[in-house]
Amino acid sequence: MLRPTIPLGRIAGIRVGAHWSALVTLGLFTYLLGRSLTDTHGNSVVVWLVAAGGAAGLFASLLSHELAHSIVARRRGTRVDVVVLWLLGGVSELGDEPKDPRSDLRIALAGPLTSFVLGIVFFGAAELVGVVVSGPVPETLGWLAAMNLILAVFNLLPGAPLDGGRVLRALIWRRTGDRLRATTIAARSGRILGLALLILGGMELLLVGNGGGLWLMLLGWFLFSAANVELAAAGLRHRLGDIRVRDVMTERPLSVPATWSVGDLLRSQIVHSDHRVFPVIDSAGHPIGELAWSDLAALPAAARETTEVRRVARPLPPTARVSGDELLSTVASQVVLRPDFDVVAVVDPPGRLVGVVTATDLTLAVQRSALGLPAHRSERFRPPNTAL
Fold it and tell me: What are phi and psi of 385, to 5 degrees?
C-alpha cells in the first residue's frame, strides 16, 4: 500500500493524497511538454507556465480517473481508504474486495470511461480555443486530450492490476462463478503484459536509443511486480477462506498508555511478558500507535524518564485498525506485518482496543488452515498426564 506523504484533503468524502514521487512525474511532464512547446512557440516564461499548467491538468485527470473508481466502489458497498497520486499515476486503495462480478466490472470501467470523456472534452476545448487564439494553450489542451485517451486505452489492457485486468477478472468470475480462478488468470495475464513491456522498453532503449524505453521498462516492472503481489494475495485469500479477525486475535492484549514515560514502561509488569510489540492507547482506550522493544533501543537512558511513550511510538496505519468481523485475508493483503515489529489493532464499534493480531498469529492461521484445522485453538492446550 502507498502511503500519501502530501495530504490533499477530501473530495466527495474520499481522502486524497500524493506520494512524494508524484512531484518527480509532475516535473518530468512539465519539462517534456515545455520542450515540445518551445520548438514551435519559442522559449518564454508564458510557454513554461502553460507547460506547468498542462502537467497539473494531467494530474487532475489522473485524480478524476481514480475518483471515478472510488465513487462507484462506495456506491456498490465497497469501502475506499484513500486515493493516492504517485510516480506512475494514481491508485485507489479499496478497503475490501467487490462483492460480486457486476460491482467489480462497474468499478473497473469507471476510470477508463472517465478518461475517455475527459479526452473528448479536452479535444473540444482545444478546437474552440484554437478558433479564438493561437499559441501554446490550444496545443496543450490537445496534448491533454491525447494523454487522456492514451490513459483510457492503456488501462484497458487485459492484465491486473490495470483496469482491463479487473474487467477480465469480472467477466471470468461472472462466467465461472470462481473468483479465485478469475483473479489468478487476470494476475498471470498482468505478468505476461509486464514482461512484454519490459522487453519492448529494452529494445526501444538499445536499438533506437529512445529514452522513452526507460519509462516502458519502469511500467513493465511495476505491472510484473504488482501482478505477482495479486497472485500471492489470491492464494492467501484462498487459504484463509472465511476466517475472521476475531477467530485469531489475542483478546484483552497488553497495551501501553500513551502518557506513560519510557521509564514507567520499563518498571511495569509488561517487561515480564513474552510479547515483543504492543499497541499504544490514549486515555479512552483507543489505539493510536504501536511500540516494539527495538523502538526504544536508540533512546538514551538519561531521556527515559522525560520521554513519553507517544513520542517514540510509531503511528498506527489506518489499515491496521480493524473490526473483529473483517475477513483476515482482506486485512493480511493490506497490512505488512513484520515479525516482532508490527501489530493490527482490533477495535469495538466505539473504537476501543479489544484485541491484536501479530505476524505470528497470521502465520499460524495460514498453516493451521492448510492442514484443515481451526484457525485458532479455542482454549489453551493442556498435555495429558503420562507415566513411564
Answer: -70, 130
Strand partners, 244: 327
Domain boundaries, the chain: 6-240, 245-370
Q: How far apart are CA 149 and CA 321, in angstroms?
A: 39
Q: Which residue has the cell 486515493?
A: 83
pLDDT means per 10 residues, the chain with 388 residues, are: 78 90 92 92 92 96 96 91 87 84 96 97 95 91 96 94 95 92 94 94 84 84 90 80 88 93 93 91 94 89 92 89 88 81 93 93 84 65 47
Task: Report CA torsion sign: 361, 366, 367, 372.
Answer: positive
- Global pTM reads 0.76
The Cα–Cα gap between 241 and 351 comes to 26
The alpha carbon of residue 249 and the mean position of all alpha carbons in its chain are separated, in whole angstroms, by 24
Residues near 149 by Cβ (< 8 Å), separated by ≥ 6? 115, 116, 119
Of 66, 93, 230, 326, the catalytic one is: 66
- Asked if 66 is an active-site residue, the reply is yes
What nine digits make up the cell of 335?
Answer: 497490512
Q: Would you state the CATH architecture of domain 245-370?
A: Roll (3.10)
Residues near 373 by Cβ (< 8 Å), separated by ≥ 6?
Answer: none
